[in-house]
Amino acid sequence: xxxxxxxxxxxxxxxxxxxxxxxxxxxxxxxxxxxxxxxxxxxxxxxxxxxxxxxxxxxxxxxxxxxxxxxxxxxxxxxxxxxxxxxxxxxxxxxxxxxxxxxxxxxxxxxxxxxxxxxxxxxxxxxxxxxxxxxxxxxxxxxxxxxx
Length: 148
What we know:
The chain is mainly alpha-helical. It has helices at 2-33, 37-70, 78-108, 119-147. The model has no long low-confidence stretch (mean pLDDT 90).
């Protein structure tokens, strides 16, 4: 059973990390193909929501499966600490930064947020979210390497 759980965990992690890297291209394409940055932002925001939700489930499964199979010894492994760090970053983004960005968009409506008085705050928080996202991308690769 542990072998099956480890393989399942690795498959989910691979899908999530691959999705993280694919979203870099998808975001670029969507913003270049859709003339309205507001509509493009809504589409990309929804895609990130589902990807982040899948990431949280994946990381919780990694931690749960690891603890189930190795008990407290699991937390001596780098894999456990990478998963915890990724879960922390993802939770901060999902529950903290993303709702703040959405609130700024709503406050700016009917204007686009970058044309409103909230443009500076939105840019700053968007930059923080982007840095957190890139950190997730690279830490995700390290997590995959440690999972094998």
